[in-house]
Amino acid sequence: xxxxxxxxLSTAMAFSMFASVAFGxxxxxxxxxxxxLKAKGIFNGYPDGTAGLDKEMTRAEFAKVITKLLGLKEIxxxxxxxxxxxxxxxxxxxxxxxxxxxxxxxxxxxxKKIFDFNGKVTIEEMATILTRALDLEVPTETNxxxxxxxxxxxxxxxxxGLLDSSLNFQSNASRELxxxxxxxxxxxxxxxxxxxxxxxxxxxxxxxxxxxxxxxxTLDKALEANKETEVKFTYKDKEFTEKVTYVTTVAQxxxxxxxTNLKEITVKFDGxxxxxxxxxxxNYVVSGVTFKSATLSDDKTTVTLLVEQNxxxxxxxxxxxxxxxxxxNADATKTITQxxxxxxxDVAVPEVKEVQALGTKAFKVVFSEPVKPESVISSxxxxxxxxxxxxxxxxxxNTAIVTTDLSAGEHTLRVSGVQDYSGxxxxxxxxxxxxxxxxxxxxxxxxxxxxLKEVTVEFDETVKSVASAYANTTGNNAQSIEIxxxxxxxxxxxxxxxxxxxxxxxxxxxxxxxxxxVDAKVTxxxxxxxxxxxxxxFKVENGNYFAEITFSKSLQNDPSRSDRASNPENYxxxxxxxxxxxxxxxxxxxxPVIAPTYYPADKKVRVNLGSSLKEDATYTLTVSxxxxxxxxxxxxxxxxxxxxxxxxxxxxxxxxxxSVSEGTRYVxxxxxxxxxxTGEGNALEAAKYTVSSVDASGNATGSYQIAKENxxxxxxxxxxxxxxxxxxxxxxxxxxxxxxVTASYIKDSEGNYFNNGSYNVGDKVSDSRVGVTGDVYAxxxxxxxxxxxxxxxxxxxxxxxxxxVKSQPTSYTxxxxxxxxxxxxxxxxVPVNAVGVTxxxxxxxxxDAFGNKIEEIETAIPVxxxxxxxxxxxxxxxxAATGKAITITVKGSESLxxxxxxxxxxxxxxxxxxxxxxxxxxxxxxxxxxxxxxDSIITITATADTNVAGKVVNVKFDGAKNKAxxxxxxxxxxxLGEFTFGKQLPTTNN
Length: 990
Description:
The chain is mainly beta.
């Protein structure tokens, strides 16, 4: 049996702790509790119909209650006790045997086997029986007045909340007391979940329990909509596992994307979506495709995307990706951004979907899918089996309006020769339609706006022409009027009012030449959704690095605006340390020199980052300040993309070395990407590696296969192979010192060939030793950075000696894929500007993962200054006259300069913040960097709006911003770091 650890009960009588459980509609009085238990067959009343709550209960009666309460099986034909009249005629025998077999009750005299079925039940006996029945834990420490044999059982019942500690445990238990206990146990035993409610978009489940209480469960992860999920929780120390379904009709995701023709895409959501965001065509992206419209179905679950007439059509049976961005579901609890792969499949010929007479002077034909305009000509139509003299107006995507005279009455139309965008031609069939005289002019059905410059007016019939249109006043004429069947779209140069507008259309005519001027009211819906970045790519083309950024919406690209997509200042490249990158192709602020290119059809910006980035480095590109095309432009929140130059690289060989072991020469070829080891690009095939050199006369030799068999090649790391030079054609005396290895038709693990234009990559065979590459820098007074041409796996700190420092390095760390060694020092061992500091080696035990040792540094390498300058506070004062003019001076640890060539003085000033406490307003902060004698001084001045005497004045320098901009640096371009100084000024200004 499970333990009941907490049952909330209240005192019913002065001597009793059992009472009603005040939970909702459960029993609230002892009589109600008795009635509930009687209905379950647990208790019986007396012949006079009373409950006898004031009477005492016998042991036989209690045995029955326990048997019924716990659902024990009654046992007949067995008589374990010797009591007089304890036989088959004793009504209580089956119950007494049941509780005895279960180990819950035992005889009063176990030696004589006397049960004493007519004896009364004491409170401590009741506690003992309940403790056994409910498998409660019996404590070793007790604090009650029960008999010695019962103390543990009574304490267990007290601890579980079943007994009050002040009771007389040796007294007999009343039926009311036993009813209360039995009812509490029954409630616990039958406790279950009655119902549940899911709220907060599946994040919260509230369970209604059978006892009337509610349990609120907040989930770590929201439930998946319309999917049965198990939820676990604990209530009253009982564990529940309930199957819960978050039933919702609002969308949670895109369920499918399909295209049954090449000009329309159907996007099916798994529920209802918000109409405004769902019908924003900017929220859908297919590479190379421009959308004309996005139309939501009446049930608000399906969007049909129509490709622009002049845009490229989809490609039949070619896998295509659709990016959906920022579509809200119907109750705005979720914004759906999802990429879905689909394959357009157009195998159905176009059909005539509808024929409608437009009075007696024209008829309209609607096709089942978009059709090519060049195939919709007058000869495509025959009326009543006759060739007709007609003019045909094609309305993209699937409508033809044929102007020709018709008689009133029924007609037969036959259509032929019309093609869809996959080249399938309509099968000629006949369609019936009826012409009737039309005398009514078009009437407005609805009006809606798209931001502040576009209005679409829908009429009750097909519109032939509109003479003119304007909004509010005749001065705000429509720039363009586009008629599409019964919809007229007006575009204005000047924006509409944010509040209600009146749109006027003059001489709106139908094809029966009925005409009228109309007006309609419209309140624009503003576009307030910011653009977001939905994808980034980093690639190398013709030696230049390019970042391609795809946005969720069309971007502003007006050359006169700073928030345009092609503004270089909206893109900043930094290295892994957060430092602005200023190599060739980038300005001193990290902006691209070449203006980015914007591709509106793809909502994509292509940024040329030059050719000088480090191929094994990681960078960040921050995009900010670009705006969408909404009338009130929505600006992108700053977005930072991580760009891994190694990933962007074209596959190539980064290092080749050779060594001889036990008479066999081994050639090691290291690539810059993980290698494929199966399929046609398998890197473990002997035929793919050749070597060439020069002979003694300096003439080129032939090209020889290095290994004889595939077994002679081993993959020793994910990007490196070891090749045994067993090729039989390699001549004796081959010059390995000038050898060049070529690898052909090898793929990386993503299936791309290592390719320099000819599917061949390679490099010269070099010494196996690992060498220092580039400059060595002191990055702080406690660190020197040394970069190697291969990744290190084992470093012996004793290999390195640093001259010109107070003490030698005490530890090290590795960075940049283990190619950079950071030597760590204690106690600011490296001097200011790293003057006179050099690096050399005294041993070469440090090695790479292949056992190649580092190359000896025979000539000490100068250590360059990469240490950020610091400053110390000189003074903070206020002027004597008013106490409002604050002057702060700080002294540089070395020569400092402000870059006023690239930054205005206002930018320099903005790096400093001056504060004088609550209630003091500081303005006019100015900062001047200058040399005074031999010292580099920064003087910061500011104006307070009140006397600051006696106040604490602080100055703070934004080191992070300065590190990115390098606006204040030392002579080697190291940016001044963050600092804060403060001082309490005297109470007088003297």
